[in-house]
Structures are given as structure tokens and as C-alpha cells.
Write a structure and sequence with these properties.
By secondary structure, the protein is mostly helical. The protein is built from 12 helices and 2 strands. It has a two-stranded antiparallel ribbon. It comes from Spinacia oleracea (Spinach).
């Protein structure tokens, strides 16, 4: 029993690491498909539609077994808002921003998500912020350190430590900036705010809807319909809706399986179990994962800035995790103390 409890306790940690790996792969693969000419609007509609079709048999199976969730107007309204914020608006901004800039900039600006989420969670009283408490101090400091480390990895390279390809003269620049780089960065910043808002809303919805697959199915269904209505208007060229390259099909299938089905399901579960701040704590790890994947599979060089930034991200990440664990222990101790106090008060004096 102790072994099983340890495994279940480590499950959120393991699945969130996998989610960040999946998202880094998706950003790179979608960018490759868009470079080949695939419209970002077409990509969003197709992969969400495919993911919804994959989820449909599971949803119907739950209904036939009598395990379906009773749908209320409140739930349907929340599903509609989730689809609007988390798919329609967020993904249009995200993939348009990536198309105008790069996955590297997307990963860097994505580190604004923990900041936005933490602020919203504190405002909505979903997180406790008491700067006199060591756990709150650890979470605040860890978030700042992790984000700072992610920006160091992205914006500063420094001298190469491991050279696999010839270093270029512009090693201290982020990237050569394309014509719509600024607009892409603005859209990615809006994406971060939408993602934080979506996480807060999804946490509240997950508490009302106990079945993750039902939530994700309707979330994807509404998002697909909304994004299709917008994309048909924005992408009127019928030729753009025809897939011409194998990489486009691979990107759509990969996104449908790993994002619409897997990521959305486990994120919903983690949001219910751990809360929105815990989920977005892992976001700065995307920079480290992107660096490791580039070093291992793309022959990229390893620079001093990457090492320094990665150490800072790791330190900040563990600081937040420690703060979460300390806060949980403090709440448990307070609950036990209140229980013992009430028992003592109810015990008659002899």
C-alpha cells in the first residue's frame, strides 16, 4: 500500500514532465508544417476535429455503461467558455504567433503563464499568499528564479561548452527576426494570459465535472466548432484546406493524439488534484527540454548560458515544489490541531 501511494503521489510529477515534452515537440512539428505552407487556421481545426472524433467512442461508451455525467446548463456553459478561451482564441493566437516568430520565442514568452496564473489564483483565493510564511516565500522566489533562468537560456548563449556544429557570429542574439516578429510576440503574450485564464476556469469546471473524458470531449467539441467558424472566415482560400505534404498529416495526427486527447485529459486531472499553480510550475522546464532535445537529436551546440539558465530553472522549480509540499503539510497539521482541540473541548472533566 505504501509503494502504491508513493507511485500515485509521483504520478502528477511524471505526467507533467511528459506534457512539457509533448508541447515542445508539437511547437517544433507545427512550425515545420507551417513552413511547408500549411495554414495555422487549418491546422487548428483539423487536429481538434480529429481529437474530438477519437474521444467520441469513449464518451458514448461511458454513457452506455451509465457512467456519463449529468449535463446541466452550468456545465455546458463552462464547456462553451473553455472551448472559446482554451481552443478558439488561445490556439489561434498561439499558432499565428509561432508562424510569425518561432517555437523558441513561444517557449520563452510561455514563462509568463506561471506569473499570470499565480496572480489570478491569489485574486480568486485559489492559492494562499502569506509572505510571512516560508512556503509562500518559496513559491514566489522559485517562480521568479525559474522564469529568470528561462529568459537566460533564451536570450543569452555565451561561449560554447560542447560544439557539434560551427558557431555563428550572432551567438548572443535570440534569432534573426522575421518581418512580423513583434506581432508574433504580442500574440504569444496574449496566449499566455488566455492560457492562465483557461487553467483557472478548467480547475473550477473539473471540480463540478468528475469525469475528465467528458469534460475534454465537450471542451474539444465546442472548441472545434468555434475555431472552424472563425477559421473559415479568416482562411477563405479553399486550396489551403487541402493537405499537400506528409509533414502536415503527421503534425495533425500527433497534435490530435498527444494534445487533444492525452494532454487535455491529464491536465484536467492534475488541475483537479493539485490546482492551477502546480500545473503551470512546470512551464519553465520547456526551455530545458527544448535544449536537451536539440543537443541530442538536432546536433545543437551547448552554451554557457544554457547551463546557467537550466540550473536556475531547476532550482526555482524545486523551490516551488517544496513550497507546495510545505503548505500541504502545514494545512494538514492545522487540521489535526483543530480536531484534537475540538476533541479535548468535548471531553467532560472529571
Amino acid at each position: 500500500m505504501s509503494w502504491m501511494s508513493k507511485v500515485m503521489g509521483a504520478a502528477p510529477f511524471m505526467v507533467m514532465i511528459i506534457v512539457e515534452c509533448v508541447e515542445v515537440g508539437l511547437s517544433t512539428l507545427s512550425k515545420a508544417a507551417m513552413v511547408k505552407g500549411m495554414s495555422n487556421f487549418v491546422f487548428i481545426v483539423y487536429y481538434n476535429a480529429l481529437g474530438t472524433l477519437i474521444l467520441l467512442p469513449v464518451f458514448l461508451y461511458n454513457i452506455f455503461r451509465g457512467k456519463g455525467v449529468r449535463l446541466t446548463f452550468s456545465l455546458l456553459y463552462k464547456f462553451f467558455l473553455l472551448g472559446l478561451i482554451g481552443i478558439c482564441l488561445l490556439q489561434i493566437c498561439a499558432y499565428t504567433g509561432i508562424n510569425y516568430s518561432s517555437p523558441t520565442l513561444a517557449a520563452a514568452i510561455g514563462n509568463l503563464i506561471p506569473v499570470f496564473t499565480f496572480i489570478l489564483a491569489v485574486i480568486l483565493r485559489m492559492e494562499i499568499l502569506d509572505l510571512r510564511n516560508p512556503s509562500s516565500q518559496a513559491k514566489c522566489i522559485g517562480t521568479i528564479v525559474a522564469i529568470s533562468g528561462a529568459m537566460v537560456v533564451t536570450l543569452y548563449k555565451g561561449p560554447p561548452l560542447i560544439t557539434q556544429t560551427p558557431s555563428d557570429a550572432s551567438s548572443n542574439k535570440l534569432l534573426s527576426m522575421p518581418s512580423k516578429w513583434t506581432l508574433g510576440g504580442l500574440l504569444l503574450a496574449i496566449t499566455s494570459l488566455l492560457s492562465s485564464t483557461g487553467n483557472i476556469l478548467q480547475t473550477a469546471t473539473a471540480k463540478e465535472c468528475p469525469d475528465e473524458l467528458t469534460l475534454v470531449f465537450f471542451y474539444s467539441l465546442f472548441g472545434t466548432l468555434q475555431s472552424a467558424a472563425v477559421s473559415i472566415f479568416l482562411e477563405s482560400d479553399s486550396n489551403k484546406w487541402v493537405l499537400h505534404h506528409k509533414i502536415e498529416i503527421i503534425a495533425i495526427v500527433y497534435a490530435a493524439v498527444t494534445t487533444t486527447v492525452f494532454r487535455n485529459t491529464v491536465i484536467t486531472w492534475c488541475l483537479r488534484e493539485k490546482g492551477p499553480v502546480y500545473v503551470v510550475t512546470y512551464k519553465p522546464l520547456a526551455i530545458v527540454i527544448a535544449m536537451i532535445m536539440g543537443l541530442a537529436f538536432l546536433g545543437d551546440n551547448l552554451y554557457l548560458g544554457s547551463v546557467v539558465g537550466s540550473v536556475a530553472i531547476t532550482a526555482g522549480f524545486y523551490s516551488v515544489i517544496w513550497g507546495q509540499a510545505r503548505e500541504k503539510d502545514d494545512l494538514a497539521a492545522k487540521s489535526i490541531g483543530k480536531l484534537e482541540s475540538s476533541c479535548n473541548q468535548s471531553t467532560p472533566l472529571l
